[in-house]
Specification:
The complex is a heterodimer of chains A (about 250) and B (about 350). Chain A is built from 9 helices and 10 strands. By secondary structure, chain A is α/β, with parallel strands linked by helices. In chain A, a hairpin with a 5-residue loop joins strand 1 (about 1-10) and strand 2 (about 15-25). The chains are: A alpha/beta (about 250), B mainly alpha (about 350).
């Protein structure tokens, strides 16, 4: 589904964020990316939907190189890749329903979307996804008045509204408490298993990684240093990825 | 004098050049002002001292000479400002007293110059004929002529509507310009950045010209009356609102923009859903405040023929009819008070 070949990203200030990263993600996989803060996880995730441009290398999404796409072709590619963020990034002052509907912007005309005219079936679809993420009855609530976990679920519903083939999750639980974290991860698992969406997720907590990941890749200083099963990350690998002084913390 | 420590240390040669220039400027200023004010004006008591261009030139040369001499000593203000003076002890500030002295000398000289230039005269302030005139005017002002209340009120209404229409016309223009004047939206490519800089430059120029001057220009263009005043206010409002709007855009959270971009939305949709919801309330607040300012400015602009109550005020003032002027001042004061109160209440409610 996603083939990454020799990916390099150098920021204008000369910082080499990603160097020669290659791996592929098969359809339906739940892939988790781990690594220290600043190791390039977020940058890499953002190159997949071109929120960041790459310096060199190829990203093949269903066989098409996305690094050269422009204009409407770029937007079409983005619409097939959903994304959720650490800080949820919902539209402030808008209702849950309006936020979820904004996932469908690429298929709504510019003037219709500005005037707030949405097709009936889109509204029904949005209501269905709101129900799936367990927020039925909150459609008319302002999204920024919800709790963190609920906001992240709205973000998941918004991403699902795109009918994504891939869902990118950039540290989706990093600003949530442990129990909410688990519930958000459960929804991601549900999206992966029941809707068949490929999930690529940045995570910090290894306990969550072991629980949810089919496969793990680890980045260190912009290089891919581990690619394998979560169960195979032993003490030695842990020290390599997170440094000698790191101690594993668990989250339940 | 506090030390300015640059984040990235510049080359010592650049720092020394800056230090010399700063010192040269300071010393030339002290030399010129001391000569013109202390010697010429006070000691020789020339009411209109002669001026030749060689004086500032000589002062500049003298300043440069002193600064070149002082750059090797610890008396250099430039050196301490550029952080070139090595302290023996981090907490020791006693060594810089000389610099303080030079700085305060410049400050005191400036004060004395200001006092003389403003022709401050305590004698005239308390002179008998002066106080007599003030008494006459205040008595008249405190006995306003209520017969022109209606006339004044209608002129005031004209002023309020003029300010309102100037604000309303400015809103959509400033709204659109605001996006192009926001650095975070426009630094994508050189062409956008060029547009950004051009708009910023035009706005800065039109903002630095007072609305009063614009009103004079427009009164020649479209004739004396409320229309020229409205145009002047409108232009000033566009420039000010665009600046405030664009600064608001520059301070928004990038997250929603990222999220909407990721859905594959069109750039116009990204602005509408990612940017606009974050700026609506501050925009409203700025706009109401701008209307408030415009009403106040409109009365002033009327003085130069911009119509409204200011125009009326100028007419009566020209005829020295102080009772009528008193009436108009009361009306203006109450409008400003009401607008001030209403706009602060409105802006509070919007928070």
């Amino acid at each position: 589904m996603l083939d990454i070949k020799n990916l390099n990203k150098i920021y204008p200030n000369g910082y080499h964020a990603l160097s020669n990263i290659s791996f592929s993600v098969p359809k339906g996989e739940f892939l988790v990316v781990i690594g220290l803060s600043g190791s390039g996880k977020s940058t890499m995730l953002r190159t997949f939907n071109r929120l960041h441009d790459v310096t060199s290398g190829e990203i093949l999404f269903n066989g098409v190189d996305t690094t050269k796409l422009k204009g409407s072709a770029l937007r079409k590619m983005r619409s097939e890749i959903g994304m959720i963020f650490q800080h949820f990034n919902l539209i402030p002052r808008k209702t849950v329903l309006e936020n979820v509907l904004s996932g469908n912007l690429s298929r709504t005309g510019i003037f219709k979307s500005i005037l707030g005219i949405y097709a009936k079936e889109d509204k029904e679809k949005a209501m269905r996804y709101i129900e799936i993420v367990g927020l039925k009855g909150k459609e008319k609530n302002r999204a920024d008045n919800l709790s963190g976990g609920q906001q992240q679920r709205v973000a998941i519903a918004r991403a699902l509204m795109q009918n994504p083939k891939i869902l990118l999750a950039d540290e989706p639980v990093a600003s949530l408490d442990p129990s909410t974290s688990n519930s958000v991860m459960q929804y991601l698992k549900k999206v992966n298993e029941e809707l068949g969406v490929t999930v690529i997720c940045n995570l910090h907590f290894l306990s969550l990684v072991r629980q949810y990941a089919h496969r793990v890749v680890a980045l260190k200083a912009g290089k891919l240093i581990y690619d394998g099963k979560p169960t195979e990350i032993n003490e030695e690998w842990f020290k390599t990825i997170y440094g000698e002084d790191a101690v594993e913390v668990t989250i339940n | 004098m506090s030390q300015i420590i640059a984040k990235k240390p510049s080359h010592p040669a650049i720092l020394y050049t800056k230090a010399i220039l700063l010192d040269a400027f300071l010393w030339s200023y002290i030399a010129l002002v001391a000569y013109k004010v202390i010697y010429d004006r006070i000691i020789l008591d020339n009411r209109y001292p002669e001026f030749t261009w060689s004086q500032p030139l000589n002062a500049l040369l003298l300043g440069l000479a002193i600064s070149l001499l002082f750059i090797f000593t610890s008396f250099s203000v430039g050196k301490s400002t550029m952080g070139l003076l090595k302290k023996k002890n981090e907490d020791d500030v006693s060594g810089f007293k000389i610099n303080h002295l030079i700085f305060y000398t410049a400050l005191i000289l400036t004060f004395v110059t200001g006092y003389i230039v403003s022709q401050i005269s305590v004698r005239e302030f308390f002179s008998e004929s002066g106080i007599e005139g003030a008494k006459r005017i205040f008595t008249a002002l405190l006995n306003p002529n209520f017969q022109i209340f209606e006339q004044g009120l209608f002129a005031a209404i004209e002023t309020i509507y003029m300010a309102f229409i100037a604000t309303v016309v400015a809103i959509p223009i400033a709204f659109i310009l605001g996006f192009f004047a926001a650095r975070n939206l426009m630094n994508g490519n050189p062409f956008n950045f060029f547009i950004y800089n051009t708009i910023r430059a035009i706005l800065n120029i039109s903002r630095s010209i007072e609305p009063l001057v614009w009103a004079i220009i427009f009164s020649v263009w479209v004739g004396i009356g409320p229309f020229s005043g409205m145009l002047a206010l409108c232009l000033h409002s566009i420039a000010s609102l665009t600046k405030q709007y664009s600064e608001q855009i520059e301070s928004i959270d990038n997250g929603p923009i990222e999220a909407i971009t990721a859905t594959g939305a069109h750039p116009i949709q990204i602005v509408w859903f990612g940017v606009v919801p974050q700026i609506v309330l501050p925009y409203l607040s700025y706009t109401i405040y701008r209307w408030d300012i415009n009403v106040r400015m409109a009365t002033i602009i009327g003085l130069v023929g911009g119509g409204g109550i200011g125009n009326l005020l100028m007419q009566y003032q020209g005829q020295a009819r102080w009772n009528e002027v008193g009436m108009l001042v009361i009306i203006i004061a109450s409008i400003v008070w009401v607008m001030d109160w209403a706009s602060s209440k409105l802006r509070e409610a919007l928070k």
